[in-house]
Amino acid sequence: MGAKLNLDKLDLQIISEMMEDAQISYADLGKKLFVSGGTIHVRIKKLQEHGIVKGTKLNVDLKALGYDITAFVGIFLEKSSLYDTVAKDLRKIPEIVRLNYTTGNYSMFIEVVCKDINQLRFVLHDALQKIKGIERTETFISLDESFNRKVEVVQDVA
């Protein structure tokens, strides 16, 4: 991954289409974009090799699977130099689905998904509090997710 990959209009169209429907076949996507399925395959492989496409994910309704609580937790570290160590420990907690290194009040911001309040209490009280380097946390429980959209991928006009 040395040189920056120059993405053309077709690359961006492929990315955009697959962000909408990652299960579309290369042949069907090729028809939609007026190129061969083989061209799509080669382009996807190139995008994967350069780390632009990092696999595909299934979009699941977590509430339908019984995960009723989503919370966001701001983490204050004793020292910012502890970030990597704390991040490694946070990765071991399966209820944490996202971790961001942030500016502002918090050093880190995590998203936690739990089946119920007892599981959230365990994560906050037992799991997080045992991690060395965390000074304190501030928790926000999500009451509803109003929307969650994909980034619109567009080509820069130079």
Automatic annotation (TrEMBL):
Gene3D superfamilies referenced in this protein's UniProt entry, alphabetically:
3.30.70.920, Winged helix-like DNA-binding domain superfamily/Winged helix DNA-binding domain (1.10.10.10)
Matches recorded under Pfam families: AsnC_trans_reg, HTH_AsnC-type
The HTH asnC-type domain covers 7-68
Gene Ontology molecular function: sequence-specific DNA binding
Q: Does the keyword Mitochondrion apply?
A: no
GO BP term, pick one: response to amino acid
Q: What's the domain of life for this entry?
A: Bacteria
GO CC, sorted alphabetically, is: cytosol
Which terms are listed as keywords in the entry? DNA-binding, Transcription, Transcription regulation
| UniProt protein name | Lrp/AsnC ligand binding domain-containing protein
